[in-house]
Amino acid sequence: MNSNALADQAHQLAGNANDLAHRLDTLSSIAAPAAAAAEPFIYLLTIFLLACFVGYYVVWNVTPALHSPLMAVTNGISSVIIVGAMLATGLSHGFLPHLFGFLAVTLASVNIFGGFLVTQRMLSMFKSKR
Amino acid sequence: MNSNALADQAHQLAGNANDLAHRLDTLSSIAAPAAAAAEPFIYLLTIFLLACFVGYYVVWNVTPALHSPLMAVTNGISSVIIVGAMLATGLSHGFLPHLFGFLAVTLASVNIFGGFLVTQRMLSMFKSKR
Amino acid sequence: MSSNLTSLLYLIAAVLFILALRGLSSPVTSRRGNQYGMIGMAIAVAATLGRHGMLAEGYIWIVAGILVGGAAGAYVARSIAMTALPQLVAAFHSLVGLAAVFVAAGALNAPAAFNIGLPHHIHTQSLIEMSVGLAIGAITFSGSLIAFAKLQALMKGTPILFRFQHQLNLVLGLVILALIVVFVAQGGPQTVFWVIAVLAMALGFLLIIPIGGADMPVVVSMLNSYSGWAACGIGFTIQNLALIITGALVGASGAILSYVMCKGMNRSIFNVLLGGFGTDSGGVSGAAAGGDRTVKSGNAEDAAFIMKNASKVIIVPGYGMAVAQAQHAVREMADHLKAEGVDVRYAIHPVAGRMPGHMNVLLAEANVPYDDVFELEQINNEFSTADVAYVIGANDVTNPAAKTDTGSAIYGMPILDVEKARTVLFIKRSMASGYAGVDNELFFRPNTMMLFGDAKKMTEEVVQSLDH
Amino acid sequence: MSSNLTSLLYLIAAVLFILALRGLSSPVTSRRGNQYGMIGMAIAVAATLGRHGMLAEGYIWIVAGILVGGAAGAYVARSIAMTALPQLVAAFHSLVGLAAVFVAAGALNAPAAFNIGLPHHIHTQSLIEMSVGLAIGAITFSGSLIAFAKLQALMKGTPILFRFQHQLNLVLGLVILALIVVFVAQGGPQTVFWVIAVLAMALGFLLIIPIGGADMPVVVSMLNSYSGWAACGIGFTIQNLALIITGALVGASGAILSYVMCKGMNRSIFNVLLGGFGTDSGGVSGAAAGGDRTVKSGNAEDAAFIMKNASKVIIVPGYGMAVAQAQHAVREMADHLKAEGVDVRYAIHPVAGRMPGHMNVLLAEANVPYDDVFELEQINNEFSTADVAYVIGANDVTNPAAKTDTGSAIYGMPILDVEKARTVLFIKRSMASGYAGVDNELFFRPNTMMLFGDAKKMTEEVVQSLDH
Ligand SMILES: NC(=O)c1ccc[n+]([C@@H]2O[C@H](COP(=O)([O-])OP(=O)(O)OC[C@H]3O[C@@H](n4cnc5c(N)ncnc54)[C@H](OP(=O)(O)O)[C@@H]3O)[C@@H](O)[C@H]2O)c1
Ligand SMILES: NC(=O)c1ccc[n+]([C@@H]2O[C@H](COP(=O)([O-])OP(=O)(O)OC[C@H]3O[C@@H](n4cnc5c(N)ncnc54)[C@H](OP(=O)(O)O)[C@@H]3O)[C@@H](O)[C@H]2O)c1
After folding, report:
1. In angstroms, rounded to a whole number, what is the distance separating the alpha carbons of residues D349 and D398?
2. What angle is formed at CA D175 by the lines to CA D173 and CA D176, rounded to 5 degrees?
């Protein structure tokens, strides 16, 4: 290897290093605010606690006459777990995740359609005098 | 510059680059989950919306007899803005942030003590028959 | 779709779910509320479908699942009889529980899809959340299955009791806990995962068999609550807003309904869960008790005569009306009476029937306008001004022993003061006691007239007599 | 302290604040609630003090601020008269508003402290949030100051109106918006910041001066709501959980109280905010109106005689009781009547007095047990069974014109049906109308007896007559 080639290589490497350093900077600046702020877990915990309060109030405000539809509609909405099932299916390769995902999607779908439609059927029966 | 020195330098640079690449990896793995998950703003927005629901329900459940203490106690708790004032004061150098921070801390403190104590005074007057 | 937009859509879905439950605060807004729920679900599904990185091969499975499941769900929802509602809800819960198990299994096998690490190198926190979701999901699955079987009478309602039952459950629970620790410590081995799943299902099974068939509504509600918390667990694992918020809503809903029912029965949730109480076959001690006391019994014509001449009649439906499917006959009777100028109202006890709001749904099915239907607190002091209380298939919810007999199983439970009406008509088949197995002293009161017979047949006869 | 622990503490503080408001759902739990609030605040302050990276020089300023401000706040809270509450709340709001302005200024000068960028290179999103917090804070500050001045009578209560007033406000608002855009686009220049602050203060000032003194309670509540949203804005800027949650709570509280008041007066919030209605000097048209109709007037002895022989007396307090500070005399009178075996209750209209819950606080101050005090819906149909309605310094809230006279300013507002009592005693100084300036036809009814005089003096005389 002659010195010219070496110098070339060194130059290139230096360039690479520079480039890397640059990307490192960019990445740091992206990562920094997220790191300094609270971790997602704290946010999720906060969301969870507030949702518990909301659930408490919202359910206590349901009129007792509609407690049966309430049971049915919560069936429907709790099937939002389908989101997890879809991700397992759609974002992965391989048979097992696909199988589990498919089963979960199917079960949740039964619930979604079943829950909301039964609720609709029940509610459509409630009529006022006028 | 002889070729030996050049080779040395190239070697060193290569090492640097390698090092940088390594740190880049580490950083990526830290940043990745945060980037993949929602941004803090979405979390904060969620928290805000849920808090609005909670506020709505919690305030509607306040008995009208205690609406005056409610006004006073919200005075107290809204002064949690003191947190911002303290950060401006405690995490910075220089006269201006200190001054603004100090003023804000003082004003908020008036409210905190004033708000909670007035509420306490009012509430201590509410007595049952027994 | 950027991940921010996806999250925003999940947030919108969650808010729509809140509005869905909020709509149920009144019958007027309830249909709109249910629509919000459907829209929210559609948004959540669409957001997930449109998510960055979804693979074509996955889509096929997803669409297939939605089509198969959706068709099944829609079919069941359309064809089910309203009286089978309690078991339907139980069956649905068991599906949610099983779905949670499969989602956890999916996450274990494809952690990268959820950003929780690589296979065999899943983040510790995610493993904890995942196993909590798994265990609760599995318990919900098998527990709801038993509840379904008991309600559907596929299995006898009598409590199944054996020695050291609670101790066994405790040991099983501790074993599951220990396995979770192992699971998390070893970075998520497959075998341990499935052992946990199986043991948790066994636990769910064992927890529910000692509980009597008639207590199943409380159990169903409690499992509803569990399924919510399972969804939360999965939500934390996959950092999904919609799941966490919805899980908390559902968890709260189930817990509150269980509480309402226990309060209405004046029993503690522990009393219910420790089991051994109540069977769906109703009272055992009943019939013989009042041997030497006289009971005034009448027939449909007597009842029709009394009611025709009344100015205010309050109808008190109970579980027997549901059994006999008498709601349409009752509505018809009320229409006849109203045509005669009688003021007719319905009084609903919070735990009348076998599930919260049971009577309301049946009456609504029979086209009774909901403004004629009143809750206990709204109507209870109107019995003193009523000429007739028409008690149809209700028993415990009218039993004054709840007020006076400190030793009674229902002592302390609020009751409908039907005895204050000028005449009380009791429509039931026998002198048997109700769900709680407590004798009802009202049957022997001088202002009570028993109308022995099936609720539907008897009411139809009353309608005929009114026609004359 | 790790930043996670700090966040967790903020979360705990926020939950305690929720519990604080929740406690106010009943007088029994309210004191505990207030304590939760104090503990929450202590936790939030402690978490901030213990935060990683706080500098010693900063501590001095902080501690000094807390000592000075805390002493001032505690002094004011202890020494203020209960009747001065409305203006106290207004003054406190103006402080929160100003504090928000200063926090925004601090963030602008020390962005690194909040992780929102470097001076002159602050993140765009943070600049937007900051300027929203700034503008709302400044409006809250000056607006509340005017409300305070009007309530404290440092300034005349009469609406200050001039031509193109609303147009001017609109233009000012648009200018502020434009400046915010400039501020954000230029990365946060100091001058623009302060120009926004000054203009927003001017806007707050201009928005409130056209509103009559008596409408100030609605304004105060609305500004309370604003101060909450300002806190939210700052909370988003500095990504602080406690601030966002608390801000939303306060925002909701203020908005709901404004709504309750407007509803109670049957006016829209726009009607209030567009101004020109009501002065705190009360009605103008009143006195002469009923010129040729006869009014039965009596004295304290007549009143004492009537009430002594009554079996049920309902006391209806209004703004006049607050003005006269008559609550102690009223309690004494009630004690005397109770000793005579009379059933005495208090009926509170939702907008009696000049701020929500005004009468309740005054009665509580005079040791009236809260179980004797009833809301409008609870007691309104008891007037028909009452012998005497003792209306002390109340006027609009009893005016039947609200039911009958579609042209009246108070048409549609729910009222206390005092006219259904056998005898109505009206304690007021003259025939003048109340806050809404509407004549009260009740004064001329045959079953009404006017007791002209100061509420306190008159009631004391009644007590003396009862003594004999
Ligand atoms: N609603 C809930 O959520 C819930 C949940 C759990 C438990 N429970 C419990 O369920 C009970 C509900 O009280 P309840 O008064 O509605 O019911 P109940 O006390 O169980 O009495 C029902 C009565 O209906 C009669 N009956 C049954 N089939 C009939 C038919 N075909 N025609 C006419 N009468 C018939 C039975 O008497 P005969 O056999 O003589 O006909 C029985 O006494 C309470 O004890 C409550 O605690 C309710
Ligand atoms: N509570 C709230 O939150 C709120 C907020 C905004 C507006 N408002 C409005 O305030 C009004 C409240 O109704 P209200 O019935 O309580 O009061 P009001 O209608 O304003 O009447 C008060 C009466 O008290 C009399 N009075 C004043 N000083 C007195 C004294 N020293 N001794 C005896 N009487 C005295 C006055 O008559 P004389 O001059 O003849 O003595 C006056 O007619 C409503 O119109 C409501 O819309 C209330």
Report:
1. 9
2. 65
Question: For B69-89, how does the pLDDT look when each residue is reduced to its tens digit (9 = 90+)?
Answer: 999 999 999 999 999 899 888
Task: Decide if D289 contacts D362 (C-beta within 8 A).
Answer: no
Closest-approach residue (CA) in chain D for B88: D106
d(CA A64, CA C253): 12
Q: What SS3 state is found at D394? A: coil
C8 lies within 8 A of chain B by CB: yes
Helix (H), strand (E), coil (C) string for D38-87: HHHHHHHHHHHHCCCCCCHHHHHHHHHHHHHHHHHHHHHHHHCCHHHHHH
Nearest CA to ligand 1 atom 12: C352
Instruction: State whether ipTM is beyond 0.90.
Output: no
Q: Which amino acid type is present at position D208?
A: I
Cβ contact, residue pair A42, D245, below 8 Å = no
Nearest to C7 among B33, B42, B53 (CB): B42
The secondary structure of chain B as a DSSP string is --HHHHHHHHHHHHHHHHHHHHHHHHHHHHHHHHHHS--HHHHHHHHHHHHHHHHHHHHHTS-GGGHHHHHHHHHHHHGGGHHHHHHHHHT--SHHHHHHHHHHHHHHHHHHHHHHHHHHHHHHH-----
| 110-129 of C, contacting B, C-beta below 8 A | 115
Residues of C in contact with B50 (CB under 8 A): 245
Q: Letter for the amino acid at C149? A: A
Please tell me the least confidently modeled range out of A47-51, D36-40, D179-183, D406-410: D406-410
Three-state SS at D317: strand
Which residues of chain C neighbour B49 with C-beta distances below 8 Å? Answer: 11, 15
| CA pair distance A77, C18, nearest whole angstrom | 10
Mark yes or no for CB contact C244/A108 under 8 Å. no
Residue D25 in contact with partner chain A when CB distance is under 8 A: no
Residues of chain B with pLDDT under 70: 1-38, 130
Which residues of chain C are under the pLDDT cut of 50? 279-290
Chains C and D touch (3+ CB pairs under 8 A): no
Sheet of strand C373-375: strand arrangement: C373-375, C343-348, C312-317, C388-392, C423-428, C448-452
Residue C396 annotated among the catalytic residues of the structure = yes
State phi, psi for C454 to the nearest 5 degrees: -70, 140
Mutate to test the interface with A, among B2, B54, B62, B83 (most CBs of A within 10 A): B54
Q: Does D29 touch chain B (CB under 8 A)?
A: no
Q: Which CATH superfamily is domain C295-467 in?
A: TPP-binding domain (3.40.50.1220)
Q: Which amino acid is at C283?
A: G
Whether D26 and B123 have beta carbons less than 8 Å apart is answered as no
Contact criterion met (CB below 8 Å) for D307 and D313: yes
Contact C18 B53 (CB under 8 A): yes
3-class secondary structure, D159:
coil
Mean pLDDT in residue range D41-51: 93
Q: List chains touching B (3+ CB pairs under 8 A).
A: A, C, D
The single residue listed with the structure tokens 């070893």 is C186
pTM equals 0.86
Say if the Cβ atoms of D361 and B119 lie within 8 Å.
no
Angle at which helices B40-60 and A40-60 pack, to 10 degrees? 30
- A73: number of CA atoms within 13 Å, CB side? 34
- Catalytic residue, chosen from D215, D302, D343, D396, is D396
D to B contact (≥3 Cβ pairs closer than 8 Å):
yes
Distance, in Å, from the CA atom of D110 to the CA atom of D293, rounded to the nearest integer, reads: 72
Q: Which residues pair with C344 in a beta bridge?
A: C313
- C165 burial level (CB within 10 Å; 0-12, 13-18, 19+): middle
